[in-house]
Design a protein that fits this description.
This protein has about 260 residues and is mostly helical. It is built from eleven helices and no strands.
């Protein structure tokens, strides 16, 4: 997971740079060109400078420790994440045809409901909240005795579900308005192929919206990357009795070599 997250963070960093430099909008609406851009990004690990940057940024944040690095970074990133979600969501709601996209997102289609759907949802839930994983064990070891675990669990459930719901309210209607149901891809294709076409369709607003979106995605992915990496660093510190900064460097180098 740690290695996979650094790869994805590298992709997002690259697309944020493309959006800021204006290269993303320059691809036009040709899906072959947009898909080719992502295909090059996803396959060129050995020459991907952005992957290196992602690993370095993650390692630097972790080197400052829980309160000085991870907690401080989250205090800055999470409020900005919510603000960007809210701003983009409001803009999407003002687009003609957005209501149809919202109905597509919220109204269930029971003809597609099956046991496979339930299992997929449960798998996503376990993955999203890091249940039965070393992340919860590691962060739980840092929890103060006076902290209520029940309250913390409730907060995790509420915020995790809330962010996921807001993301859907922003992304699905936007894709529906500009691309229809044909643009409803999943995973990397939705973010890196379908959405760039949506941003390009927005005219002069496309570039600032694309910049905001990929910066937002970068913040979210980076905090997840830090969380997974912390499990490795914490275990290495305990096993080898080395200081945090050295273990952050060692884990970072290992992750970079493995990812490449």
């Amino acid at each position: 997971l740690a290695i996979g997250y650094t790869v994805v963070v590298g992709w997002i960093f690259k697309y944020a740079f493309l959006a800021i430099s204006g290269q993303l909008s320059g691809m036009g609406k040709n899906m072959d060109v947009i898909g080719g851009m992502f295909g090059t990004t996803a396959s060129a690990f050995g020459n991907n400078t952005w992957l290196v940057i992602a690993v370095i940024v993650t390692a630097v944040i972790m080197a400052f420790g829980i309160a000085g690095g991870i907690e401080r970074a989250n205090k800055f990133m999470m409020p900005l994440l919510f603000a960007l979600f809210l701003g983009l969501g409001i803009y999407i709601f003002t687009l003609p045809g957005a209501s149809a996209g919202i109905k597509y997102y919220l109204l269930p289609d029971f003809s597609k409901f099956s046991l496979k759907t339930v299992c997929a949802a449960m798998g996503q839930m376990f993955y999203s909240m890091s249940l039965a994983m070393g992340i919860m064990v590691t962060y739980g070891s840092y929890t103060k005795d006076e902290t209520s675990l029940t309250k913390s669990v409730n907060q995790i459930e509420i915020f995790d579900t809330g962010v996921a719901f807001l993301a859907g309210m922003m992304i699905i209607p936007a894709v529906f308005v500009f691309l229809g149901t044909d643009g409803m891809a999943s995973g990397p294709s939705l973010i890196f192929i379908s959405l760039p076409k949506v941003f390009d369709s927005m005219g002069v607003l496309g570039q600032p919206v694309a910049i905001a979106f990929f910066l937002m995605m970068g913040f979210a992915a980076l905090t997840s990357c830090v969380s997974v990496m912390e499990t490795l660093v914490a275990n290495c510190m305990e096993l080898y009795h080395k200081p945090r900064k050295k273990m952050c460097g060692a884990v970072g180098i290992y992750s970079l070599i493995t990812a490449v």
